[in-house]
Specification:
957 residues, alpha+beta, Isoleucyl-tRNA Synthetase, Domain 1, Rossmann fold, 5 domains, 4-stranded antiparallel sheet, 32 strands, 17% strand
Length: 957
Amino acid sequence: MSETNSGAEAAAPHRYTAAMAADIEARWQDFWDAEGTYEAPNPTGDLSGDAAMAAKPKKFIMDMFPYPSGAGLHVGHPLGYIATDVFARYQRMTGHNVLHTLGFDAFGLPAEQYAVQTGTHPRVSTEANIENMKDQLRRLGLGHDKRRSFETIDPDYYKWTQWIFLQIFNSWYDKEAGRARPIDELVAQFESGERTTPDTRPWSELSANERAHILGEYRLAYASEAPVNWAPGLGTVLANEEVTADGRSERGNFPVFKAKLRQWNMRITAYSDRLLDDLDGVDWPEAIKLQQRNWIGRSEGARVDFPVGDSDAITVFTTRQDTLFGATYMVLAPEHELVEKIVPAAWPEDTHDVWTGGHATPAEAVETYRNQAASKSDVERQAEAKDKTGVFTGAYATNPVSGEKVPVFIADYVLMGYGTGAIMAVPAHDSRDFAFARAFELPMRCVVEPSDGRGTDPAEWDDAFSSYDAKIVNSSGADISLDGLGVVDAKAKITEWLAARGIGEGTVNYRLRDWLFSRQRYWGEPFPIVYDEDGIAHALPESMLPLELPEVEDYSPRTFDPQDADTQPETPLSRNEDWVNVTLDLGDGAGPKRYRRETNTMPNWAGSCWYELRYLDPHNSEKLVDPDIERYWMGPREGMPHGGVDLYVGGAEHAVLHLLYARFWSKVLFDLGHISSSEPFHKLYNQGMIQAFAYTDARGVYVPAAEVEEIDGKYFYQGEPVKRESGKMGKSLKNAVTPDEISAEYGADTLRLYEMAMGPLDVSRPWDTRAVVGQYRLLQRVWRNVVDETTGEVTVTDAEPDEATLRALHKAIDGAGQDMAGLRFNTAIAKITELNNHLTKSGGPLSRSVAERLVLLVAPLAPHIAEELWRKLGHTDSVVHQDFPVVDPAYVVDETVTCVVQIKGKVRARLEISPSIGDEELEKLALADPAVVAALGGAGIRKVIVRAPKLVNIVPA
């Protein structure tokens, strides 16, 4: 401490300082915990009598689940947490029953990787990280209902994650009803004959394996062998959303390959239309809605069958069925299941040399090409590369409209994850097909008449011609002609023709794929599934939940050479034989039997798919959530047709992953009658990011930002010049600033104010430690306006405030209140600062009524100092549940307003007039103004337009 500061504090021992802030903040945090200040009551009974508190209008406010990092928080992390806390405090003060709490998303790869590196059990390191994060968040004064907090690694929590999985496993989607139904109802339909089996045999004649296979085709959670994203360097498979644009793992940056493995999937595609349609009923940023719509990717077209061989057909989905006559070849994804069936032993006689890739047989060519394709990511395969690759399968299909034989290729630009994994190639009207056809010397036929004068011979074109606003040509067959029709009419006609012959139908396709739900990891929720000796999956009964993770000696899945695609996962759980192989009585009448447990675990997204529901009823051991409690906090109501959380704040990076998955789980639980809300989050708000300057030396190595000096506009580290850049705050850039540092130097209330004052909440902003002092001084001035810094006594009086003060006060109440309700905390702080500056300049002690309302205005933003001042003003109850100040409209209206007087559109005068002035009086004042008289120069007036009280427009004759 400097001598100057020491002397100042000695002269003013009751000045608001960092030391005083630390004392105040610690005391009030202890008080809030002891008194349960932030505990939000759940409704009981009929919401009368003792439940009057719960009968208040409710607000359920949530932050996105934090993952507890060992590095702890930097000042960028709590931005959203402080914002929701300010909003929650404001809502309490405006009469709402507010549910605001925070749990921890604690399963996942970071803790497991740390366990592999150090031998520390993931639970030990995770729980230590959680405790550290709780301490940091507590110091910020966040008003969370701590009774409702939990971690996803709590067995009491993941018991219900497993329970929800079983609800999904034991359900199917009834397309006719448009909702999920219990699988038992489907079985009953098969048993009664209401629904026939695929081969029409009675259900009673099917074996257990056959029944399980049929039901697996319907279940919303199912295991299947399918192409998956395999990351050998991680030893696990990944969902599409966990693979980066350049085909590497989001975690660890390892290469990702396509491999065929048996994995659990969620049939999220059954909900594609509802996931799209219900976006219209939620209050989300349009950019996020657009990302979800694009990810689901709904497109209308037709399914068309192209016969191949004696008994097979290649099914394609196309949005341009009007161009069928122009299909001159076909392409299958290398992984397509028909490839092996249709490949002949030898090349047909008319095979072009360029089609074979130089291989002796079709089988050799296909195998080589498949291996090459497996090493590429989906993004790489779809890139507009100059050289198109592929190979002829040796098979031909039949174009169903022309009867022509068309060669069938495999090429990596066709993916199994989109459509049917097969395309009809119309090279004259698709750029990729055009390039492929040129490379492989394939025929092209123009069937959409060009409008740019290029003619109708594709051999003379430089690229394909594509248009939805053109006529169809060269498209006549034995019993159908599309010639002369527009695209829309041609599509309708050919679709009807296909359907009448049973070789196609109009259909809708989606980009969305089923959700890959298996991970070859230890630190995740175990699947509540066991397999019998025939490999049939059985659900554990609810009485056996939770199925807890066993202890293992080695936490790591077996990893492989990151470049070796020809490997298979080996999970940590599979190495615990005593846990894997068990004798159980599942209560199904079969008695005790030997079973094998599922050794994959659920992905880290599982726990965050439903956590909003657990906040409602966190200690219920009998139900997922009490229906009345769920309906009160999340049920549909006016303006919220699907129900959900009132405000959900978090980063835009979760637009697809977490948000789409959580919406899917909510809809299944809604369909099965477990909850009343079909959407989890009604209002979504994406906060911006706090950025910070980082510095690199001559080697390009980052140096500690805190040790960089600025001298004459240049930057130096240990005397050497460094280069400044702006980036995300964090350890890697050595520019992290912890909330603990700022709280120690200025107090947590100052940190809260600074983060909220930096700019609009939804905009990224740069951190500047030097600017924090501005908010610190604001709090010092607020304190000084109420408390004598020398004696510590309250200085307010009972005198009535003057009119100027009342106007300043009520304008601040009106503006700050609207801003807090609209999440515009930076402008709310500006209005409070303006009021406090007025009070400081007015001199003399404050009126008690003004001082109290000033404290109430500050309370949502800086709760610790507000509590202290509220107590000093003589109140014994907490400021948290006080009413927000009420505005008096009479003092909000300006005494005068400025009226602009224009002549020929140019401003000639400004008049200070009463806001209530009438048009006639205002016109007289304007015409009499000397500047207006001079500007008119005796000219006559053709027209005067008056818009009282702000505008008079004079039109000379």
